[in-house]
Design brief:
By secondary structure, the chain is mainly α. Helix content is 41%, strand content 8%.
Length: 139
């Protein structure tokens, strides 16, 4: 991460739990540990983006429930604040099967600062629909 920042790049740090970790109630601990192990002391809104991307949702079409997304994003924000004094304003994106049908609801959550769009970005119509729905434009 330090090397990327020194080269003028803004790393997107993806964190997330497996289905087994989620079902065992370990999502918060897993994500917290991932953050602690990979973030450097100098992280700030100017040089880092965090994305919560539950492993079990990648490419499956499954999306976490809004309450679960908000809970994890709040946990990420609190973990950042506890460990990094410059963490205010670091964007926290959601990246688990964001689609035109769910983008507006996900992006309306208070602690979600954007979307890390994967598979839907490969379909121009879907990607444009996500952009339009989240920017208030009609399709």
């Amino acid at each position: 991460m330090s090397s990327a920042i020194k080269c003028g790049l803004t790393p997107i740090v993806c964190v997330g739990e497996s289905l087994r970790q989620r079902e065992a109630g370990g999502a918060m601990d897993t994500v917290g540990t991932q953050l602690e192990e990979c973030l450097i002391d100098e992280v700030s809104k100017d040089n880092c983006i965090i994305a919560y991307e539950p492993i079990w949702a990648i490419g499956t079409g499954q999306t976490a429930e809004p309450d679960d997304i908000e809970e994890i994003h709040s946990h990420i924000r609190n973990t950042l604040k506890a460990k990094h004094s410059n963490s205010d304003g670091i964007p926290i994106l959601y990246g688990g099967s964001v689609k035109p049908e769910n983008a507006s609801k996900i992006l309306a959550l208070p602690d979600v600062g954007g979307a890390l769009v994967g598979g839907a970005s490969l379909n121009p119509e879907d990607f444009l629909a996500i952009i339009n729905k989240t920017s208030g434009k009609s399709e």
